[in-house]
Amino acid sequence: MRAIIFDLDDTLYDPMQPFNQAYQKHLPQMAAEVSVKQFYLKSRAISDALFEKQQLGQIDINEVRKIRIIEAAKAFGYEVTEDLAMAFQDTYAYYQGHLTLLEGYAAFFKKCQEQGIFLGVITNGPGDLQRKKLHSLQLDQYIPEKYWLISGEVDLMKPQREIFEYYQKVHQLDRAIYVGDSFENDVVGANQVNWPVYWFNHRQRQKPANHATFKYQEVSHLAELLTALQQKLGI
């Protein structure tokens, strides 16, 4: 087994950094009282809950972007107008075009290249936005674009087993190690095709009630993750 497939958001880079830029600019009073981590995680939970409807065309992506900020702020007792929510999104999107890989990945990817290990990406989201992020990270230095799979471009999404099977078939993989930060999308999805999976739980999210029914290895820090992967691969 010499293949590793990665999730993108909150796995290869820290989305809280561009989010915080928008937070400090547009909601400074709230930012002084509610941590960016609390606000980010609440907004992401709202966004994740709406993702399937978005993929099915039942709700527009711009509506999701507004709702997640408005409802997340409301959860902490703050009112945000639609115009302010979209201004927040515009700033967030700008800084999403200026991303950097988490420190440690570049050296790890180079080692994998030297060892002939297959590297790939499976990510949920619209094609234009996810490609913008991947290019901003300059990920094509290590993982060619042909090995990037974006849900919005194939009408499949994690945790559906079909998106993992599609990737296997296209790239002729028997199995692969999968790495992601979302239990619901990454751990559940990879388990459906019997891929070993590392849950990169650096946000310290709670395990779901049914977590014991899935096979996975939980890691909390990037150094721990990269060490575990190197041991698994024998590099």
Automatic annotation (TrEMBL):
Domain of life: Bacteria
Keywords assigned by UniProt, alphabetized: Hydrolase, Magnesium, Metal-binding
GO function terms (MF aspect): metal ion binding; phosphatase activity
One Pfam family, short name: HAD_2
Keyword flag Hydrolase: yes
Coiled coil (UniProt feature): none
Cofactor(s) this protein requires: Mg(2+)
InterPro entries per UniProt: HAD-like_hydrolase, HAD-like_sf, HAD-SF_hydro_IA, HAD_2, HAD_sf, PGP-like_dom2
One GO biological process term: small molecule metabolic process
Transmembrane domains' residue ranges: none
Protein name per Swiss-Prot or TrEMBL: HAD family hydrolase
Species this chain originates from: Enterococcus cecorum
Organism ancestry: Bacteria, Bacillati, Bacillota, Bacilli, Lactobacillales
